[in-house]
Amino acid sequence: MMTLEIKGLTISYGSHTVLEDISFSIPDGTIIGLVAPNGTGKTTLFNAIIRFIPINQGEIRIDGRNFRNTAKDVRALHEQITFFPDQAELYENFSGYEHIQMYRDIWNREEQDIDGIIQRLNMEGYVRNKVSSYSLGMRQRLCFAMMIAADTKIMFMDEIMNGLDPINVELVSRILQEVKVSGKIIIVASHLLDNLDDYADQIFFLNDRRLAYKYDRRKETEKYIKATVPGAALHAMKPWPEGTIHLNGSRICIPAAELSGERKATLMERLMENGAESATIGPLGTYEHYLRIYKGMES
What we know:
Layout: E1 3-13, E2 16-27, E3 30-35, H1 42-49, E4 57-62, E5 65-66, H2 71-78, E6 81-83, H3 96-108, H4 114-120, H5 136-150, E7 154-158, H6 166-181, E8 185-189, H7 193-199, E9 202-207, E10 210-216, E11 224-228, H8 231-236, E12 245-247, E13 251-255, H9 261-273, E14 279-282, H10 286-294, E15 297-298
Parallel strand pairs: 3-8, 3-9, 6-7, 7-8
Antiparallel strand pairs: 1-2, 1-4, 4-5, 9-10, 11-13, 11-14, 12-13, 12-15
Helix pairs in contact: 3-5
Keywords: ATP-binding, Nucleotide-binding, Transport
InterPro entries: AAA+_ATPase, ABC_transporter-like_ATP-bd, ABC_transporter-like_CS, ABC_Transporter_VariousFunc, P-loop_NTPase
Protein name: ABC transporter domain-containing protein
């Protein structure tokens, strides 16, 4: 079993600390969602782990080996980790096929079936054209295909769903789950919070320089009635059952475990009558935890 372990990672620029005492351990066969507002350290964390930037304190370990800031260790680290390409790094006069082949040859020569990757991502119709002719979504699928072709043990993917339509968001989400099963460690930074719930095993939230919360979807199973209702309407509907959580003024989460089927139906009907577009029953998800951590809550 492979493990990526980060111990006490701190990143500072002068007197400004971006990340402080970040620690976690991720086993293989795991997808981690990484969530934080813009400018609060997601990309910095990726760059630090892959040693694109210096770290002030901390250790980066894979299978117990500490990868230090030496040329030998950094080279060995880059053999095991790929970072999602920026679209600005694509060569306009190269075809998509040439890009995928390049990533395959750098990391995993002859091991990956390029044509199979292209078919999985429905790229047959354009992949041999020059990148200069690609739309934003086509470029994003190409960058994802390059990662799949590299086939490294650890994959860092920053905003991989940008520019993708709902059909391709679903496609990429499904392929991520398929790739995970082969024993990969995948960390995905994304603003599509509900989409993270479709494929991530855990969600890490960064806040105030630290790893503020680890949401494990496999363990947090308590059910709530969830809806978004205008704040004034919510206030008028009081009182709520004990343990009800209010988030960001309009999101309400009502514990459902002790409620009868009739009581659940009545509450959901009231929520709809008072302006909710939908009312669902399920565990608190990434969206609710995002509101709780970054917007605050009242219970």
